[in-house]
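User: Show me sequence and structure for the first protein, then do the same for the second.

Assistant: Starting with the first protein.
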Amino acid sequence: MANLRDRKPKDYFESGYKDILYLLVIVGKTRSKHGRDSKGMNLERILTFSCRSLASEPRDKIFGVLGLSSDGSELIPNPDYRKPLDTILRELTISMLLRQDSKSKFGPSDLICIDNPTVTKRSEMPSWVIDWTKIWTGPAGNFWASSIERGLQSGYLASGKSNANPRFSDDGMALTIRGYVFDRVCSLSAVYLIGGKKPKAFLSEGMPGSALEHSLRENVYGGEGDLFDAIWRSLIADRIAHKKGELSTKQAPSSYGSHFAHMWSEDSTRPKGERLKHTYDCLTAVKSFQIYGRTLEDWSRFNSPESNPVERAADYDEISVQDFGASRSSTGFEPNGMEFIYACKFRDMFHRRLLTTRKGYVGLAHAQSEIGDMICVLEGCTIPMILRPCNRGFRLVGDAYVHGIMNGEHWQAQPLSSIQEFDLK
């Protein structure tokens, strides 16, 4: 009898193996980094893979991988099949939020943003609970929907170096976190989502907001060049594309400004690699989005004094073009401009809308965001959170990127006396 551990990647497409392919990926990734006997991958990372595997009993998708994780036995010490799945999901999220490091500090609370942004959250489930069922039923269980690679190792410090201090109601249905209101959503761009019985991409229209335009002369970033910089950095969350499957924690270099300037140039009409086609479709969908009275396409033509082309072959070599299904000749960009396109590709995979705030900040918002939603900086969260008022509390919509507050600028400027509590329902 063949040993499952000895199967090779080419065998994964034989009958029966496709359904457990991503469980085998977990084992392979763990071994390659930590050795054959290691349990180096934590549970939330494993669940991003196992969500693609099939199971007749939904609870098996959680209980069945506990032994593969480094922390499964701590988070769920006694698996109980008598509990409803929703109760298991809620208790697991609570255990993750209360998990402490070697210094007895709670870890970042960003994990409450792990979700499937292409669909609305279930009203019967607390909005802060990681609802793995929505990710399982997403586009092929697409784990790009999760914040694992993007938020949990983001390198951002929106709440400075504050420590998480989550508190829960007696019935475990409400999560209380302290923080500050930063601003409200003013306008949102269109975004491509995935849906239907046979999942395919469809365009969710943008929300232009009020007709009142922000003044260029009084923009919150300073001069027009500073605003230009904020816009292109927001388009990629100010991060370079690093590896297949993740965004780096490295800040984007200033030379990316010149890459942005080529987005809708004549060269960009050349044939693209098939796997980049959707990225260009997504960029086309947002090019008419208005920021300070100009479209995104108009902003790409802005002649910034700092946007001169800079050859960065060394940085380009860090990225395997084959990982993204494109070749240098199949794109409309020179190699030094490819990284920006790859970073845009990840924004599309995470289903984020471009946003402007009432104060005039720009950034990215969760796909389910609406005009008027609150943008908050919460204790122990490295990224801003979008909240929506509800009956005696707030519903968590998702995370956001807002250029200008990602390194704690707003958090550090607030007096401790003005901090408030948010009851997330």
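Switching to the second protein now.
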Amino acid sequence: MSAEAQIQSVTVLAWFSRHAGFPGSRLDARAEQLLLIGRLIEAENLPATSESGTLQIPGAPAGANENAQRAAMRTMSELRKRVHFKCDNGAKV
């Protein structure tokens, strides 16, 4: 284990002991997992979200999520246009 990893594990344990009363009491298993995953993301320097607030997929191109959102919005607006098609029933036969 590297020195940096040891320091990070010590800070996580210090947080657990200060805020959760570890080792005398423990948080829910899910809460502990969330805290540890958050710490891993921070340690890896991975962005948890992009500028638009959506989840960033590691290894994906920078604007992949934004492009998909734009395409979905275009499709939605096209569907709205079809719904609002007006028919002229006033023509006399």
